[in-house]
TrEMBL record:
Alphabetized GO MF terms: D-ribulose-phosphate 3-epimerase activity; metal ion binding
Organism of derivation: Gottschalkia acidurici (strain ATCC 7906 / DSM 604 / BCRC 14475 / CIP 104303 / KCTC 5404 / NCIMB 10678 / 9a)
Name by which UniProt lists this protein: Ribulose-phosphate 3-epimerase
Gene designation: rpe
Known pathway: Carbohydrate degradation
Keywords (A to Z) from UniProt: Carbohydrate metabolism, Cobalt, Isomerase, Manganese, Metal-binding, Zinc
InterPro entries recorded: Aldolase_TIM, Ribul_P_3_epim, Ribul_P_3_epim-like, RibuloseP-bd_barrel
Cofactor note text: Binds 1 divalent metal cation per subunit.
Domain of life per record: Bacteria
NCBIfam families per record: PRK05581.1-4, rpe
Binding residues annotated for a divalent metal cation, in chain numbering: 32, 34, 65, 174
Length: 215
């Protein structure tokens, strides 16, 4: 089953309750929440207090993508705010194994994201503990960037790595996914699709979310 996770990074921040209502109506499976600190990535978004308020306006699971340095210092805040999945970047922490265990200790799903230039080999000794791997298909930091084609090979390789190990781990892709390339990434092995601008920069957010669901 393919899941759609609209990223509210491109949503109208003045009315997030309404915007989340629209993707809910369109059948979104997850809400993708991009947390940026201005250090790990050259952009700043929002933090746990915003998620805590949003938790009250929808039942859709929250998929929290941390693009912050030293994520270990903030895991509890995001758990308390209502995160269902927490994704940390491999490049953002020295103690990746420890932070994965920390996330799991709260009963929340743990995921690791890899920047486009980070090899899959960096997951070798932690992959057994993961619920999801996020393959960044753009360099993190901004919505509306172009899909990096080399990442398709990486998704395929990850899919094989997961199958060879007999694991059941979701493969999420994030960045530059549109209605016209979603099929390609799904064929490579991705099963959770993040889309920001392709959903929120359209006139009909409900209809576009539905199209993503039905493709
Ligand atoms: C980028 C974020 C993405 C972003 C994707 O750093 O992680 O989730 O919202 O935006 P689009 O779909 O517009 O590339
Ligand atoms: Zn993201």
């Amino acid at each position: 089953m393919i899941k759609i996770a609209p990223s509210i990074l491109s949503a109208d921040f003045s009315d997030l309750r309404e915007q989340i209502g629209l993707i809910e109506q369109g059948g979104a499976d997850l809400v993708h929440l991009d947390i940026m600190d201005g250090h790990f990535v050259p952009n700043i978004t929002f933090g746990a207090p915003v998620i805590k308020k949003l938790r009250k306006v929808t039942k859709i699971p929250f998929d929290v993508h941390l693009m912050i340095k030293n994520p270990e210092n903030y895991i509890k805040d995001f758990v308390d705010a209502g995160a269902d999945i927490i994704t940390v970047h491999e490049e953002s922490t020295i103690h990746l194994h420890r932070v994965i265990q920390q996330i799991k200790s709260y009963g929340v799903k743990a995921a690791v994201a890899l920047n486009p230039s980070t090899p899959l080999e960096s997951l070798e000794y932690v992959i057994d503990d993961l619920d999801m791997v996020l393959i960044m298909t753009v360099n993190p930091g901004f919505g509306g960037q172009s899909f990096i084609p080399q990442t398709k090979e990486k998704i395929k390789k990850l899919k094989k790595m997961i199958e060879d190990k007999g694991l059941e781990i979701d493969i999420q892709v994030d960045g530059g996914i549109k209605l016209d390339n979603i099929k390609e990434v799904v064929e490579c092995g991705a099963n959770i699709i993040v889309a920001g601008s392709a959903i929120f920069d359209t006139e009909d957010i409900v209809g576009t979310t539905r199209k993503f669901k039905n493709i």
